[in-house]
Each structure stands twice: as structure tokens, then as C-alpha cells.
Amino acid sequence: MPTAAADPEWRRAEALRQALHHHAWRYYVLDDPEIPDIEYDRLLAELQAIEARHPDWVTPDSPTQRVGGRPLEGFDPVRHRVPMLSIRTETDTEAGAALAFDARIRKELALGPDDPPVVYVAEPKFDGLAIGLLYEHGLLVRAATRGDGETGEDVTQNIRTIAQIPLRLRGAGTGIARLEVRGEVYMRRDDFEALNERQRARGDKTFVNPRNAAAGAVRQLDPAVTASRPLSFFAYGVGEWPSGLGDGPEGGTHWQVLQALRDWGFPVSDLVRRCAGGEALAAYHRDIGACRDALPFDIDGVVYKVDRLDWQRVLGFVTREPRWAIAHKFPAQEQLTRVLAIDVQVGRTGKLTPVAKLEPVFVGGVTVTNATLHNADEVARKDVRVGDTVIVRRAGDVIPEVVAVAPPLPQPRGEPFVMPSACPVCGSAVVREADEVDHRCSGGLYCPAQRKQAILHFAQRRAMDIEGLGEKLVDQLVDGNVVRGVADLYRLGLSSLVGLDRMADKSASNVLAAIEASKSTTLARFLFGLGIRHVGESTARDLARHFGRLDAIMDASMQDLLSVPDVGPVVANSIHTFFAQPHNREVVEQLRASGVHWPEHDGEARAEPLPLSGKTFVLTGTLPTLTREDAKARIEAAGGKVAGSVSRKTDWVVAGEAAGSKLDKARELGVAILDEAGLIALLDDPGAISPGSDSGRG
Ligand code: IVH
User: Would you say 456 and 477 are in contact if contact means Cβ atoms under 8 Å apart?
Assistant: First the structure.
């Protein structure tokens, strides 16, 4: 288009497209943006305005075209030029499967005992759905599901809405005539939980697991619906090969393929490892298994792949599976079991939660006997009844839940569940406010269940940290009327504890010592411990930082509260109402009179900015003396932030014993590394060390 290309506005549009692709990659793939969101939005709006004036200038890969097109009638079939194979799965979750795979590969490659170990690439097995992405001259032209491996469905419109998938390849990728990238579309657990929350709030059907939610989103006929579902992507291989890649004299490796995919702009998991020999594969299976619950997404195993591509070719295929790769499973995160009863639990705020009592079942690595049913509407929607067989899911640190009833239904079936009209613990009336999904006990602190939960909340590690004050003890203290509220804890003596079930002299004095120790705390922990509705740990920290003194918070007006970052009307109202109640003020006074104290200051508005504000830390490994919580608390008290993963934004990585991939990543990115002594020195004198000067172990 020679005339348009000469137009400065046309050139501006192209420059904007390039900039937007770059910033989207920084944001969605690297998780390391260079510009604030608002600036990105401004660039996008500018491009949209130009394209609105010149509709014929819109390119298919324009960042404005992620959600284009109208709903489809159906999906067209796509024949895969290179079949999308499945992979042999070892369900034996023990290390043996890794060793057996290595032994088989060595045999098939005719390697002797003196030959060096075979190098593999080990990867997580992502639990989503396989997608093939076809790029021509660097542009995404088609995306297809796996289907039966030979023929899949054309889901291009929907896949384009996934921000982590490049519409245009980066760097050398643009020079490749034809390239098919393969990978997994999945949904992160937090995105899945939030999606189900939204579905529940709207009275819509919830999804059983992130995989089903992702598969459902990809197979929507209306791309606008897909765009509203938060999907993510990992690339793990290449289907159709660009000539040249992997055909060189050295034959190339899968590891290089993954590196190339990163360079072209795809997210590749940083959990992939190169492993030499079967023992290393087994260790990888163990390591990933151990951190599985902490990952932000579901995986159902790991995949081992022979690294050398020429060896992959030699090994070839058996029927529809490659001989050079296997999947090695982890214990399932979903199981079938039977509902023995549906109980109703009363929480700290009076919320009633129906809980299914289950025939014990091993799921996600632990034995589960209870699973939440969330609320009455959920039980009704899923129509769960006593005697039914149900699917139970436990993934990550999310509490186990009943996700669906599994056929066949027993005949006759049990009665439908009804929420009791009186609190099962204190007998007070159960209320359900308009627009609320939850039923609540109206008993307040008259209700022993609410009191118990309030005490447990106050005593928990992240609040007042009273070790040894667990459920069993709190049950006895409240049931025996020894403790009615949190203030009573500080009046306990040895005589009131000794004699209780499982309370010998020694454990009783330990509990008393822990109660005594808890008196010295921080304002943020104390505030969080009070259990004010909507005031979680991070809000409590914000409030403490902003106001500095408890009295300032207790006397704050709505206006004052609303000036705290991230505090909106609902939260502000909840805090204001809490401290407007004389009873709550009295509890606070009693606690202070018992000697509960914390350092106070004049509040951030007036104070100097904290020495580490704006600085981001990542903790890895075990520190010699500080627990992770302590280290985090001390960094945050100095104004710093603790993040979960290392990126270029990280200012310091604090590494202890057995530090893992985060330390490697820090070295790779040149992020400053501290040991515990270095961290303490920094906290004592923030000016003395800057991220540029390598102190500690570095
Ligand atoms: S490689 C020829 N790598 O597992 C080998 N598959 O393959 C082709 N999957 O539904 C697959 N994570 O979508 C490979 N890191 C990974 C994977 C992975 C998940 C899925 C894949 C397919 C199934 C069997």
C-alpha cells in the first residue's frame, strides 16, 4: 500500500502496533512490564482511533483485533499436517517409572554401561488442552484443537483472545515461512476460583475444574465469551518444523527448541529442566511433586523427553505414541466417594457452610473426609444428597470441595438438603439478607461457634501467633465457659488449663508462655486478629502503615478510611461500624490493659517514607535463623514487598539453604543476592547496601 505507507499516520499506526505487541509480551509473558497499565491503555486507544478513521488499515495481527469476529455457527475441521500425538502415561507414581524409561531408552539406542547418561528434558504435564498454533511469515493464521490427533477444530477466533499467545512472532520468528507451535491452554487456579465465584454470584453453573473451564472457554462459539474467561498458555514443542531448525550438523536439541520458543515470544515454563540419566528424572518427579500444591496451576504429572532431536528421530513412534517421551503421573486431584452426611458449620462471621462428610478418600496426596459445598444455592444447583456418589476435588491449598454428583444416582435418593432455620450451634435464628448468597447465624458473639472461630482467628500464626492454642483446646475453653472472648485469654492461669483433656503441666505452661509472648506484637497483626469483616492481612497492614496508631484507626471517619490505598466503601464501612460498637472498643481496651502492645508511629501521611518502600524481595530456601514469615514481616515493616517469583523487577533475592530455581533465575537476570546476614544488615541500615553492590553471597 505505497500511498498509505507514506502517510505519517499510517506509520504511526504501525509503530503503535509494534509497541503494543512489545508491551503485551513484557506484561503477559515475562510478567515484567516496562510501562504502567494506563500508558498501555493510552497507546491502545490511540491505535483504535486511527483504525476507526481508516478501517482498511486494520491488520489481522493488530492488538485491537484480539476480540474480533461474530459468533460462529460451528467449528471447521482442521487436518493436522503433522499428527498431534498422545503420549504414553506411567500411572505408577513411584520413582521406578523414571528409571525404567531411562533403561528402555538406553537399550533402544544400544548404549552400553560405559556410555554417558542420556540427557532428557523434564517438564510439568500441564492439565489443560493441547493446541496447535500455525504461524506463516510470523503471523498467527490458525489455531486448532487436537481432536482425534489427525483432525481437530479451527478455534482461531477464540485463541486470538488469549493475551499470552503472540499474534505476531518476535525476532527471528518473523522470518520463518511456516511454523506450528504446540502447547497447552490452561486456566490458573486463582483465575478458576474467581471465575467460579462470579458464576456462583450470578447463579450460573460452576465449573468442575480448571481444565474443564479452559476446554469450555476454547470451544465457545462466541469469541467474546472466551475473551471474558481468563486463559493462559505454555508452549512445549513444535509440530511442523521450520527447515533448518534441528537439522544442523549437531542435530539440535529439544532444549534449544524451548529456548527458540521463548525468543519468539511464547511463555515456556521455568520449571523445565535438563536432566542427565534416570535418577535425575526421578529426582525431578519428586521435586515437582513436592511443590505441586504451591504452583499457581494444576499439573497432573511430569513429562520426560529425550533431548537430542536426532535420537528422537531414531527412536520414532509406536502406533500413535512417540518412543522418546513418557508422562509420569502424580496422584489424582479428583476422586469419587460417597456422601455420608451433610453437616452445617458456623464460621467466625456467622456464615453457615454446608459440608459433606465423606467416606474417606485419598485425593491430591491426602486423605479427605470433609469437603465444602459452599452455600445452600450450590447444594441445590449440584443437587447433592446423602448417599450420592460425588466427585471430590483437592488441588493446591484450596480446601477440598464437592464439584458434582456422579451417576448412577442411588434409588431411592436421599432427601434434598435444606438449610436449618435455627443455628445448629446456638439455636439463634438463621438469616439471609437480600442479595446475599450466604445464610448467617444471628447470634453474634452469643454463638459459641462464632466465639470459637473468633478466638482461633485471633490466635493463628499470621495474627497473634499463640502456639498451642488449637481447635481442641479452644473447644474446651469455650464449652467450659473458661474463656468467653479473646480478652479472657490473657487472664488464664495454670489452674484453669491443667486438668483439661490433653493438658499436662508442661503443655499448659507452654500455652501460657505463648500467650505471654503474644503480648508483644505489631499493629497490623493485632488489627487482623480482631477479625473485622473484610479486613484481611494486607488491608490490616495498609491501615497500620497509613495511620500508625490504633486510636487513629478507631476514631477515623469514613473519609479518613477511604483515603487508605485499596480501602473502598465496603471495607471502610465495616471498619467504621466495628469500632462504633462499644463492645468492640471494650475488648480492645481490655487487651491493652492486659499488656498487649506494639510499636506506634505517627502514620505514613506525616512520616518519612519507609526505607525499603518500592523495593521488591523474593525469598528462597531455608534461612539459618529467621522463618520465612519473620523475614517477610521484617521486610514489610521496612516498607518492602515480598514477591513469589524472580523477575527483572526484583531488587533482591534472599537465599538460604537448599535455594532452588529462584536463585538460578536471580543469577541469570543479574538480580542482587543476599544471605540472611546480608538481609539483617540491610534492614538495620538500608543505605549501606544497594542492589547494585553485591553483598552477601552473590
Ligand atoms: S508433549 C509427542 N509436553 O499431555 C509428545 N505434552 O501428550 C507430545 N501435555 O494432551 C506432547 N503438558 O497437551 C507434552 N509438557 C508437555 C505437556 C503435554 C501437557 C499434554 C498434551 C496432551 C497430553 C499428551
Answer: no
What is the spatial distance between Cα 17 and Cα 21, in angstroms, rounded to a whole number?
Answer: 6
| C-alpha 667 to ligand 1 mean position (Å) | 30
Of 121, 470, 457, the closest CA to residue 275 belongs to 121
Give me the pLDDT at residue 251, please.
Answer: 67
Confidence of residue 392 (pLDDT cuts 50, 70, 90): very high
Predicted confidence (pLDDT) per residue in 463-482, tens digit: 999 999 999 999 999 999 99
Residue 698 has pLDDT above 80, yes or no: no
Distance between CA atoms of residues 132 and 152, nearest Å: 9
CA 235 to ligand 1 center in whole angstroms: 10
Q: Decide whether any atom of ligand 1 lies within 6 Å of the 610 Cβ.
A: no
**Of 126, 232, 284, best ligand 1 pocket probe by most atoms within 8 Å of the beta carbon:** 126
Active site includes 382?
A: no
Instruction: Name the closest-CA residue to atom 18, ligand 1.
Output: 125
pLDDT at residue 693 greater than cutoff 50 = no
Q: What is the pTM of this model?
A: 0.72
Atom 13 (ligand 1) nearest CA: 130
Percent of the chain past pLDDT 70, that is, above it, reads: 96
Of these residues, 125, 329, 452, 615, which one is catalytic?
Answer: 125
Q: How confident is the model at residue 679 (pLDDT cuts 50, 70, 90)?
A: very high
Distances (CA, A) of 103 to 106, 124, 207: 5, 21, 41
* 3-class state of residue 587 by DSSP: helix
CB half-sphere exposure, 69, CA atoms < 13 A = 22
Ligand 1 midpoint to CA 301 (Å): 10
User: Hey, how many other C-beta atoms are within 10 angstroms of the C-beta on 150?
Assistant: 12
Provide the pLDDT for residue 134: 96
Query: 3-state DSSP: the chain helix, strand, coil percent, rounded to 5?
Result: 40, 20, 40
Out of 337-341, 399-403, 514-518, 685-689, pick the least confident: 685-689
CA angle 667, 672, 677 (to 5 degrees): 115
Category of 610 on φ-ψ map: left (φ > 0), alpha (ψ -120 to 50) or beta: beta
Q: How far apart are CA 51 and CA 16, in angstroms?
A: 11
pLDDT at position 695: 43
For a mutational test of ligand 1's pocket, the pick from 185, 232, 236, 285, i.e. the residue with the most ligand atoms closer than 8 A to its C-beta, is 236
What is the CA 568 to chain-centroid distance, rounded?
24
Question: What residues have CB less than 8 Å from 620, skipping those under 6 apart?
Answer: 653, 654, 655, 656, 659, 660, 662, 663
Cα gap 69→36, rounded to integer Å: 29
Indicate the Cα dihedral angle 538, 541, 546, 548, nearest 10°: 170
Could you write out the DSSP letters of every residue in 243-287? TTTTTSTT--BHHHHHHHHHHTT----TT-EEEESHHHHHHHHHH
Q: Which three cell numbers stand for residue 139?
A: 503471523
Q: Find the 416 Cα to ligand 1 centroid distance in Å.
A: 42
pLDDT digits (tens, 9 = 90+) for 577-635: 999 999 899 999 999 999 999 999 888 755 566 788 778 999 988 888 888 888 888 89
Question: Residues 534-580: pLDDT tens digits?
Answer: 999 999 999 999 999 999 999 999 999 999 988 999 999 999 999 99
Residue 255, ligand 1, Cβ within 6 A: no
Question: Are 118 and 295 in contact, with CB atoms under 8 Å apart?
Answer: no
Q: How far apart are CA 175 and CA 159, in angstroms?
A: 22
What single DSSP character describes residue 606? T
54 within 8 A of 84, measured Cβ to Cβ = no
Q: Distance between CA atoms of 431 and 416, rounded to whole angstroms?
A: 20
Which residue owns the Cα nearest ligand 1 atom 14?
A: 236
Backbone angles phi, psi at 687, to 5 degrees: -75, -20
Q: 275 - beta bridge partners?
A: 120
